[in-house]
Amino acid sequence: MTGTLGGRFVVLDGPDGCGKSTQMRLLAQWLGEQGVSTASFRDPGTTAIGEKIREILLSPAHDAMTTPTEVLLYMAARAQLWAEEIAPALQRGRCVLLDRWLSSTCAYQGHAGQFGIEKVIAIANDALDRVWPDLTIVLDVDLATAAGRLNRALDRMEQKGDSYHRKVREGFLKLAEGRPDFVVVDSSLDVDAVHEQVVAAVGRLGSSPSQKAWDRQDR
């Protein structure tokens, strides 16, 4: 089941409070137990440049930032992360696990921010060597459950309000519709139940042909 996961690119994404960090940690642990070499990163971030961009993006002090600025900063951090970390890890045959990717910008800035999902993807096609991963797992969660999990000071994006975050959830679900490289998981369930669904989705990827035809398609 996991024999062909080397060199695959898997993203866990979803609204704030969906449990991405927990599920990515559990998935990395499970893959390691199966003998799959993994590399885990976060977007934006991981690289020195990406972490500085992340600080700018998420600081509540930058509440004047426009949606187009957000799009371009997220894409810049992503391009750097690809060049420094993701591409080399894939070339070494590791299974790359990523906390957020292009799907986030489509849902947050593209749909909720009304920039346009198609415009986000067009910029990605120009800026990124690899647009879509082999698999995107959307951890879907309702606002009430998500809010209950955010028991810390909220960053600038998290502070945007219920209406915005309701549209973010809509954006993720809209993006996943009809796409074989997306799986939607109900992350309002307990941690173990969500993990089982994530493992099942990744296991199916491990037994399927490469989906690299999706890499630069304008979806």
From TrEMBL:
Coiled coil: none annotated. Gene3D superfamilies: P-loop containing nucleotide triphosphate hydrolases. GO terms for molecular function: ATP binding; dTMP kinase activity. Transmembrane segments: none annotated. GO terms for cellular component: cytosol. It is an enzyme of class 2 (transferase). Its EC number is 2.7.4.9. Residues 12-198 form the Thymidylate kinase-like domain. Keywords: ATP-binding, Kinase, Nucleotide biosynthesis, Nucleotide-binding, Transferase. ATP binds at G14, P15, D16, G17, C18, G19, K20, S21. The keyword Transferase applies. Pfam families: Thymidylate_kin. One of its GO terms (biological process) is dTDP biosynthetic process. CDD domains: TMPK. It catalyses: dTMP + ATP = dTDP + ADP. Phosphorylation of dTMP to form dTDP in both de novo and salvage pathways of dTTP synthesis. Belongs to the thymidylate kinase family. This is Thymidylate kinase. The lineage of its organism: Bacteria, Pseudomonadati, Planctomycetota, Phycisphaerae, Sedimentisphaerales.
